[in-house]
Design a protein that fits this description.
homodimer, Arc Repressor Mutant, subunit A, 38% helix, DNA-binding
Chain lengths: 264, 264
DNA sequence: CGGTGTGAAAACCTTCACAGCG
DNA sequence: CGCTGTGAAGGTTTTCACACCG
């Protein structure tokens, strides 16, 4: 997942649980699809299936928004699309800037899912002079020297960072200084921002690592014991030597030393 | 954020909470950075800051893995890197196939974060014949007709779907039929898979929508008055309310019971 | 001392199950 | 009757705070 969040000051009444907020886009997507097929109403059961959650959860989620359904019938698709859009703030137009136009930035620039949800790519920004002026997904790339100007002129409050990790923090700082208060970070690094600025992160490799964890477990399960090169070693007892000091000689798994992970 | 099916068999021993598993990659990343700077040990406080979580949470997380720290000192960086890598299953090599080589697929193919974490891009697959043979990030694209063969020959168990939503389910079905048991889905659609197959999804526009929700709230807040983000509301009228009538009837929505205009 | 490891409390989220309304 | 809306129960995650150890 990808969460990111800056502490909520414990706020007031009108609180929609964060977990619910995170699912609203899912419901919206499912509803939009139904709307396109001109389906007039849906039951919580059907909509839940389409969104990939269970119906009790969906009903509970909707109950935080208000009573928008009709007992014995279900929910009016169009009406719900509107209510959720409004709740998410998608009834207004959100100009967004994407910084870092490499492969990923280009993919984001051309991603249809943005435009269709109230987001408008206001500008593509890159530090490489060779990119300046080059159109990507139909939008000319601008140089990062103009970052502040662009943000101010367009009243941009949401920025997407798709730069290498090394420069992400400084790009972030500039965005924040220029007035951006929400950041979607694709760089594999932790950004620090002042209070009042929201950061959400998406790390592609983290998702894969979580899958690997479960995958590994499946493999170990069906064999009871193990068979791979990296055997199960210990499992039950927490044993394992905590104090494995001395940089060069930490004794680890069966494979002598040095884990198999080493970035470039 | 999205877990796949496969719920805890309950009976299985060694349960590391899902929330903890999701953070292990974060710790690993922070530790890898420290390791590169040859830092020998870290305290929970320091590591937590580097990973963007609080220290109590980090210590609790590590307690599920075992007692790998030294009281009064902290954790041995190298040792912890190894332990977490092993727990995540990253000490082995995971061949991965990426299906759908558009902008996003190309970005993924070239993403350094994969290779550095035990993942190996075994193949890039696309349905467009014009792409076949073309090298992307140094790897030649193969045609989807050969999908099953590729998966079998390489013993691939993890697949990444970066195709348009319309074909995602069928690609998924083929991957699963060929033996893939973990899928990372970038297509904005819900995939249905048999039990035993894990799916995680990453939807770029969902993250932005969540940011918009908070952004909207901020805007409404500084305007002083309460009354939610949609204060004025009124807004024309149409839309199709389910059945908002009857005095004292259902009125819970933040905006009384008067519907509002449907956005385009 | 300084910092880990961990029970216990608190907060949060999900699921159950059913009252009640259309 | 069918389905929503929701208290209450159950589960998970986070936070607290402190015993305990190097």
């Amino acid at each position: 997942m990808a969460t990111g969040r800056t502490h909520r000051p414990a706020t007031r009444s009108r609180g929609i649980p964060e977990a619910t907020v995170a699912r609203l886009p899912l419901y919206l997507r499912a509803l939009t699809a139904l709307s396109e097929r001109s389906v007039p109403t849906v039951s919580s059961e059907e909509l839940a299936a389409a969104a990939g959650v269970n119906s009790a959860k969906l009903r509970k989620d909707f109950s935080y928004l208000g009573s928008y359904g009709t007992r014995g019938v279900g929910y009016d698709v169009e009406y719900l699309v509107y209510q959720i859009s409004r709740e998410l703030g998608l009834t207004q137009d959100w100009p967004v800037v994407i910084v870092g136009i490499g492969n990923l930035g280009a993919a984001l620039a051309g991603y249809g899912g943005f435009a269709s949800r109230g987001f408008r790519v206001a500008a593509l920004i890159d530090a490489d002079p060779a990119m300046t002026g080059k159109p990507v997904a139909g939008i000319p790339v601008q140089h990062s020297d103009d970052l502040e100007k662009i943000i101010n002129e367009d009243g941009v409050s949401i920025g997407v960072i798709a730069t290498p990790a090394g420069v992400a923090q400084q790009v972030c700082d500039r965005l924040v200084a220029a007035g951006v208060t929400s950041i979607l970070n694709f760089a594999p690094t932790v950004l620090s921002v002042p209070d009042g600025v929201d950061v959400r992160k998406v790390d592609l490799s983290i998702e894969l690592q979580i899958l690997a964890f479960h995958e590994q477990r499946k493999a170990g399960e069906e064999a009871g014991a193990e068979s791979g090169p990296d055997s199960g070693t210990d499992t039950g007892a927490p044993a394992a030597p905590p104090a494995a000091r001395t940089a060069g000689g930490s004794r680890k798994g069966p494979d002598g030393d040095v884990p198999a992970v080493m970035p470039a």
